[in-house]
Design goal:
Helix content is 54%, strand content 15%. The protein contains twelve helices and 13 strands. A hairpin with a 2-residue loop joins strand 1 and strand 2.
């Protein structure tokens, strides 16, 4: 699959995940706002019901009081006279409410608990008597209700708000109204008069930190002096409202986890694609590297086996030298391929010895100088380290220095003779080794990847530079296994410098 196709699919899926997260967030926010509006409306309706219940309770108390007084007055009276279908009332009843209540109307009549129907042979007369007694009973009950209304109006008018309010009754009314509307949250309340004076406060009520209070007038139809208002607060309101989003939150969480998993998967796919491309380059280069010595060996073998060609001692020696040289080259390439296994294992066995790094480096430079001078280059060696004793594996340490110098030859500029500088010095308790060239240099984007396995910096054609892309990866691995560090600095068109730091032997 092409890289552009992969990126297009990734963008589409990524945008889909982000849109899904956005829609879920909007949905959760809408649910929270709807829950808040429902809660506020329910509380306002419940407080209105509680206010009405409080007024009904006061009316009920006056009703009981009036009924009790009627029964008491009726018990004291010997008889009630029915005059002109009106109900007469003892004077003591009017004296009870006569001070301010100038009321003249139907007066109560006490009826027996059982209604005795007069015997009559006429059905019409019986129905008329029954209707008459029902009217009398209705007049009696109506009179009681009228007395209650006047008692509430005129008796309550003589009381202030503090005397009328019973906090325990208000608490019961509030709780009953809220629970009746489905709100089971604990609440605190405080009561004020109409002019702002505090009448009652719950012990748990605190003015600080109240994000939302609900206010309800009490005794709204009464004069201003008898009115007041209650302020209610719900400590668990925020959690109750946000709880509605608890069903959406897991969905958003899992969507986010899927999004992160998708990003990681895309990263691994892209990385694997790069590794695959580098391995393909490795295979192509390996084929090219093996093809040359095999072809050379094959030609030399054919010349030796061809009887038509004259053969002298010098010919045999020359062909044998070619076969030996190409065999060594082929063996060296095979060893480099086997180095791949070093990166897959963590238990590489190193044969560590205390060695003089200056002597090892000088030996490698001497061996490598022939290859550099043949290409018109030069090597400047300054082994300035006073303490160059390090604990290293001789073979691997030699290969590290050789690979770095070999890279300098591979990536030299065509128009400039190669110049190598190999320097050692001490820095604290470490031995520092730098190998600097004046080659083509490395771009900044490639610097962070040059130590990756199979990665090669291309200079045009795929095979214009020999190698498998394992040299620098091997170098970094070996330096780290010896407890050291390696860093690289480069400038495109100016050259590259590798610096190795290894701990000295004390």
């Amino acid at each position: 699959m092409k890289r552009n196709t992969i990126w297009l699919i990734c963008i589409i899926i990524g945008v889909s995940f982000l849109v899904l997260l956005y829609l879920e967030a909007r949905y959760a926010d809408a649910m929270v706002r709807m829950r808040q509006e429902q809660f506020d409306e329910t509380v306002r309706r419940s407080l209105d019901m509680a206010s009405r219940d409080l007024e009904k309770d006061e009316t009920y108390r006056y009703l009981k009081q009036v009924i009790s007084q009627h029964e008491e007055l009726a018990a004291r009276a010997d008889t009630f006279a029915l005059v002109d279908n009106d109900l007469s009332l003892p004077d003591t009843f009017m004296q009870k409410y006569g001070g301010q209540l100038q009321y003249v109307g139907k007066r109560p009549h006490r009826f027996p608990s059982t209604l005795t129907m007069p015997r009559s042979n006429s059905i019409d007369r019986a129905a008329a008597n029954l209707q008459k007694h029902v009217q009398q009973a209705y007049a009696y009950e109506q009179n009681i209700l009228e007395e209650v209304i006047y008692a509430v109006m005129y008796t309550a008018s003589n009381l202030n708000f503090q005397e009328r309010l019973q906090p325990s009754v208000l608490d019961i009314c509030l709780r009953r109204a809220l629970e009746g509307n489905g709100i089971m949250l604990p609440f605190h309340f405080i009561v004020y008069t109409s002019d702002g004076r505090e009448v009652f406060r719950c012990r748990e009520y605190d003015e600080q930190g109240k994000e939302r209070n609900y206010t309800q007038p009490l005794f709204r139809s009464d004069p201003t002096g008898q009115m007041g208002y209650v302020v209610v607060h719900f400590p668990g309101r925020k959690g109750y409202i946000r709880d509605v989003g608890s069903y959406v939150t897991p969905a958003m969480l899992f969507t986010f986890i899927l999004f992160i998993t998708f990003l990681v998967t895309v990263y691994l796919v892209v990385r694997q694609k790069k590794v695959t491309e580098m391995k393909n380059d490795f295979v192509h280069n390996m084929t090219h590297e093996f093809k040359t010595p095999i072809s050379t060996i094959s030609i030399a073998a054919q010349m030796l086996s061809d009887k038509s060609l004259p053969k002298s001692e010098a010919t045999y020696e020359r062909l044998g030298g070619v076969i030996n040289a190409e065999t060594r080259r082929l063996r060296f390439q095979v060893e480099k391929v086997l180095q791949v296994s070093l990166f897959e294992r963590d238990n590489i066995a190193l044969k560590l010895d205390e060695l003089d790094a200056n002597a090892l480096i000088d030996s490698v430079v001497e061996t490598f100088s022939l290859k550099v001078t043949q290409s018109g280059g030069s090597i400047d060696t300054r082994l300035n380290a006073d303490n160059a004793v390090v604990k290293v594996d001789e073979m691997h340490f030699t290969n590290v220095i050789f690979n770095l110098m070999d890279n300098a030859v591979k990536y030299k500029r065509e128009d400039v003779d190669l110049h190598l500088e190999v320097v050692t010095w001490n820095q604290g308790a470490n031995l520092c080794i730098s190998i600097q060239d004046n080659g083509i240099g490395i771009q900044k984007d490639n610097l962070k990847r040059i130590f990756d396995k199979f990665y090669r910096v291309h200079t045009g054609s795929l095979h214009n530079v020999k190698g498998f892309g394992l040299g620098l990866a091997y170098v970094k691995k070996m330096v780290e296994l010896h407890g050291g560090t390696i860093r690289v600095t480069s400038e495109l068109g100016r050259g590259t410098k590798f610096t190795i730091s290894l701990p000295n032997v004390k």
